[in-house]
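Protocol step 6 of 9: fold each sequence in the batch and record its structure tokens directly after the sequence line. For illustration, a two-sequence batch is reproduced in full.

Sequence one:
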Amino acid sequence: LILNTKNLLHIEDGAFRNLPRLKYLSICNTGIRQFPDLTQIFSLEAHFILELCDNLRMTTIPQNAFQGMNNESLTLKLYKNGFEDIHSHAFNGTKLNQLILKDNKNLRRIHNDALRGATGPDVLDISSTALESLPSYGLEAIQVLNATSSYSLKRLPPLDKFSSLLEAVLTYPSHCCAFRNLRTEKQNSLLSIFDNFSKECESTMRKPTNEIFYRDDSYNTSLWSAEKNMYLFATDEETSPYSYSAIFDDSEMTGFDFEYDFCQPKILTCTPEPDAFNPCEDILGYSFLRVLIWFINILAIAGNFTVLLVLITSHYKLTVPRFLMCNLSFADFCMGLYLLLIASVDAQTSGQYYNHAIDWQTGSGCSTAGFFTVFASELSVYTLTVITIERWHTITYAMQLDRKLRLRHAVPIMLGGWIFSILIAVLPLLGVSSYMKVSICLPMDIETGLSQAYILLILVLNVVAFIVICACYIKIYIAVQNPELVAANKDTKVAKRMAILIFTDFTCMAPISFFAISAAFKVPLITVTNSKILLVLFYPVNSCANPFLYAIFTKAFRRDFFLLMSKLGCCKTRAELYRMNYFSAYTSNCKNGSSAPGPSKASQALLLLSALEK
């Protein structure tokens, strides 16, 4: 034992030479900078243990560092050192039983050929290291893998490299999804074979110990007892009703050991198990959602971009309704970008999300997507509420020009909405809830009271906004229902338009709010998998419908659209027709306004309908 010698800075080459009876060597808590020469120990013991620990100045495990250790079973406990990398062929010539590399906080790299030339290890422990990847060579013999608190290990090597793995203790639940898929595939294949001879197995076996299936040099699979040094079941069909070499293929047995007391396979186990927030599935879960989300996000992006382009390039004066519509279109455009980002990542990681989950959910991509969706949804709801109140105000005070809402009033109102929406979207980035909880990057973390209050605040404000919108439209409907102002057919038209506006708002807000509020109180009524249906089918309803209901279906927008197209050399006839109709309506309105000292009923009706049309 060489312990607690901080002044020991170097061990001469050959210091450990010809020690045939050495069973255990420990070098811990020293000041050694260079890896000691261990190649000349030549211990004859079958089982040898080497312990290197707390040597914080030792930064590298060099090539052929353990080459002289030819023991039948070698255990290397190399923990709590200053290792930063392990070189190629570092374990060359060894027969590793256990390789313990835990608590090497600075260990970031193991060369891809570090285990080349070695047999084993059966147990690999890389917990609490900074490793970003495992070597793809030399993992075939590992039966136990411990990688807890290895937060930098976000991707696993190809699963076929872990051909002997029986137990995995990992950091991220998503990695266990990979082994679950492998386990299910192998289990279904092997259990179907076991059903054919389970009765024969149960009647024949007599609680053997240390038995395992091996594949010999002739590639015949048979049951071998290492302890008894004999085949328990002959492969001759005359002595046994089953020829194991014919029944089993080595590839079918990957990931399984056997408990012959029960004639059942011992299945690969992996922890931590995926939880309710991160089930073993792709980002969108269902195949039909993968198709729908592309249609919906393209519709939202194209519709809102068109509205923004037409409104911004219009040569008409920027009115309050136009200004508010620009804000609404921008918010809904951001929602389309969120859906596009989710759809793109889902397409890229389909079938292998488990290997990308950590990079996605902890990276800037998911944070950006989460910011977009919360900012867009809150700004959209806020702007919809302002638009509705503006319409109600315009109709209620139609004849009182001094109370008309001006652009100088609308700008600070919307500035407040932008500040509020940005603040709400930034809070999860500052630790109030989190966008990293689920693959769809919504703030579903309610572990703390502050996070729970944050979610409830958003939901309550959305419900209040919906109530305000409904109340304003009911008042508008009552106002325009006056038969002295609007004809019956106009009344029906207005009522239908209001019903559609309220229905789309309700369709978007009600299901989301209902299930989200129950989840915020930690009584979830729907799984994350099923919530993705709400995400695609209900959540973006307003973003798709708003550009059509508030802009594209209105006469004012169609006029601006055809005027813009005429500038590009298209639809000149339609554009000229809209110019003539607009000029005619303007001239008629001026004549009616000057024929009487006060506003007529017809002019009042025209103002009411124009407010709704906007």
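Sequence two, same batch, same settings:
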Amino acid sequence: ELKNTSGLLYPPEAPELQIRKMADLCFLVQHYELAYSCYHTAKKDFLNDQAMLYAAGALEMAAVSAFLQPGAPRPYPAHYMETAIQTYRDICKNMVLAERCVLLSAEILKSQSKYSEAAALLIRLTSEDSDLRSALLLEQAAHCFINMKSPMVRKFAFHMILAGHRFSKAGQKKHALRCYCQAMQVYKGKGWSLAEDHINFTIGRQSFTLRQLDNAVSAFRHILINDSKQPPAQQGAFLREYLYVYKNVTQLSPDGPLPQLPLPYINSSATRVFFGHDRRPAEGEKQAATHISLDQEYDSESSQQWKELEEQVVSAINKGILPSNFQPTQFCLNRYSDNSRFPLAVIEEPITVEVSFRNPLKVPLLLTELSLLWKFQPKDFNAKHGAETKDLGMCDDDMIGTEAIAEFLINSEETKVARLKLFPHQTGELHILGVVYNLGTVQGAVTLDGFDPSIGSQTGKFVSNGLSVRGRQDLEIQGPRLNNTKEEKTSIKYGPDRRLDPIITEEMPLLEVFFINFPTGLLCGEIRKAYVEFVNVSKCPLTALKVVSKHPEFFTFGGNTAVLTPLSPSASENCSAYKTVVTDPTSMRTALLSSASSVDFGVGTGGHPEVIHVPLPDAVLLPGASVQLPMWLRGPDEEGVHEINFLFYYENIKRHSKMCHRVLRHTAVICTSRSLHIRATVCRSNALEDEEGRGDNMLVFVDVENINTSETGVKEFHIVQVSSNSKHWKLQKSVNNSEDKGVYLS
């Protein structure tokens, strides 16, 4: 006997049960039409008797029988299934049967491509009483959305996230992770940054719980490298989670290779490399040569001018022929310089690499123990049979000294450069791979000891939260695109960029130049005397010191007979081309005589007047030695501001195979103003006799005009002497009306 929902018992011979048994038998032998009729009849009887459990079962089977009928004489009665589901759930309180009915009906609807109705049916059965059942139904509904004729991708992803959430609540971590990963495939790269952050954070948490540490690190990494729109507090939480997970990963393999860190961003193409020491600052009246530094911006026009000057002096040294292996000296390499060749660096001279960091987060980042990562292959370039190669070294301070920055703070959304140095101690091939550092966060941006955040060095200390991980970032620089041949124009090919692969050569001399009492302003045509000090700060002597300029008429060096630098080089009498002498001691009359002789002015080298030889004592400047020479300057004939480039060229006494010479640059800025306009005419005089009574002399008429109209410049000139420079003629006396009073021009 069976009991209905009203508490009545059905005897085994009850007609309702007999009809139900007949329907089941017809269904088993696949006589679906007769089964449908029997189920339909039994359903009415069960409803009349208020046997709701039997009625729901009859409705369910009637709908299935109608669906399975061949030829589909009648449409699928979906309302039968909905009534059965509602009866199971609300009246009979049997969720297992309701769930079975929903899954069966959903499969029938999906087979008829009614995915929208199937998804709605699955979603309606979700509830708060069973997380696992709701997760299964939401996942099936999500697959309905993606299988539509016009797939509803975002609804699929949204319901997969809901399913993952319910799986997580039910303790099914693997299923939860699978659902979130499938949803991530939809949201990734669509600009929904907040949704991506939530999904990645959840994936990271679930992966860490399942001990899938690599997946956890990857998920948290994506949160940090995306342009996040999260508030600072949330970004700080994400960063701490990442550091915590990352630290657990590194503890599993402490001796493994350093992993790649996602923060801060590095603009590899903006990396600059500088070869050489920082120049000594000026001392007192000494003005150091400007040369080149990382603080100067790159100027392509200026760079081309320096290249032409170097080619000019090298050609003059080699009798007018530029060597085929000539490589212009490059002190600073950047994205605009020619980086197709391996740069040359000198042993025991620092290599400075400027790296540009950017913090994309709204919280500060603290980098500690920041240094360069490199590998080095020692070679002896002086070996008889080519270069002698030794074992490959990596990060060995005996071969390459590495300077580390103890603390480097990058504020929120800040771009900041760090200058890192290497000190090569052996010759060979150096390859700079990247940077290595500890990544951490700070509790606040409070600094001590006067730290200046704009400077790459560190003198302050920051309060860290104690959570940091050590890793690396590689410097990967893409070379310029090739566009010369037809093949290169029709394809995308890039040339090499070797700015981070210098060759360390043998020791070379190093010259420093100081200018003493060098003027910043001159009158047009004015002759002024200055002094130049040459200092050899290296451990090997230098020779063949020359200077080349596009304006050789501006300057010349004093000869070997020139007087050494006076005690007070800035005194006016030491800067002028003339000196005051007493002509008559009784009357204390004075006169101005030239303090420079013709031997004080240098001569160009051969057919290259722009290349001037610097007269060093014995033509050699020993290590640690210095020499001061007078330099005569003549103001340019045109008024205005003039930039005059000096390129100092010098060589090592011992010739090297890699580096033959070195150069030093200096740019002088001279402001000239108009002074006098002079017209001289000469006519023969038969009446004028010289001191010895000989005739055949000349009369020289000099017309002088003051053309200086500037109110701020010199307003009055006093003509006190006219002198000449000739091997055959000399001026005997001056004839003018004012006698000793001189000539004044206003």
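Proceed to step 7 once all outputs are recorded. Observation for sequence two: Residues 232-252 form the longest helix (21 residues).
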